[in-house]
Amino acid sequence: MSELKTIRQAIKPLLIVNFIFGMGIFEFEKKQPSKMIEYAYTLFCLVLFISVSKFSLPFYEILLMSHAVEASRKMFQTIFFLNVLLMGALVVTSRITAKTLGKVIVLVESCDQTMENIGLPKGYRSLFLHQVREFGICGFFITLVALEFFYWNLTESMILFSSILALMSHAPLMLITVCDVSFCFWVKYLKLKFHQLNQLLHGMLTTSPDSPQHKRVLEMRYDSENKKFTSFRNHHVRGSNANANTMRAVKQIHLELIKIARTMNAAYGMQILLMVTVSFIIITGLFYLFYNLLWQDLNTVDFIGAMMPTCCWIFTYTMKIFYVNHACAKTSAEAANAGDIICELYEPSTSREFRAEIRDFTLQLIQNPLIFTACGFFDMDHAFIQGIVGSITTYLVILIQVGDMTMQRSANSTTDDHFNQTISTLEVVNV
Asked: How confident is the model at residue 176 (pLDDT cuts 50, 70, 90)?
């Protein structure tokens, strides 16, 4: 692989895949097509995907007819329509926010150049390989999901061509996954850059278990004439001016990365909100279906045939939520780790200029924390995963209670009808 010199070369896999799915325009030698071509191509992709979904729907419904459970068929039909709606919404919102994403690329180019000036590598090769690996893993996983659904719903009477068309109904899942991977790529890019800054700050630490900070302070020599501490007896003298300049540069780059994160979050915020909302609805419905399957009197083949696709879809959408939120939480934690490191660097032995830079950096970290949100509705982190687990559990309990009450009411109604019919029969006999 030739050396990658620019960020646009490094994100070619991302640009190409988004271009294929209509969520971006691939640039050739920095030549941006006209807006008319961009919107026309996006509209073409949107119509194409909706047409494919609509064309595959009858074959998808034929495939579902093999389900012995009516509730299972209705649930998978609901998933199909929700995915199609989400697919259309993602294509439209990505076209609207394409300009904002372009700003992200420009900011990244500037930030990478600044980091290279202070000796930090760009790491474009690792970013390129990361994209290829992520798209490869996701493609393999989607193929497994489609084949699993195909295996448990295929009947001997089905034509192979009809089955293949039914599998095309998983196209919306591909587009949704591309959106998730694209967002998480930029999040992990920021994590890599924050990690590089933290490693640079770690290299400025001179304290060790053998020479902790309090011991170093006691070893300072006191100048009685000027009434101040001058230097270390063990000659641990650091280049204060150089460290102050480095700290100033790290502080500036850290703030630039925060701005990049906010701009990127604005570009993907609506898409992530839609993805999480649809995933929450589908997961809740699938768990309710899972509960119903456990209490139905089914033979082993029908039970496994209905349970396996249900568990597979639960795992798919649960991993989507966990994958996105975990990436955001790890990046936020990496950005906040800079505060712990600079607090260790704050020593009386350093120059006033260096300590002033640390105080300014600390204030900057407090005023500009790294928080990823879904259009400001909720924060994307591990706490959100805990919250969504609680919400799914709450709504699941409500659905179970309402369902049990409905079944009990239906049973009582059937009993009353039977009782009334018996009374009517007795009256006719008496007459």
From this structure: confident
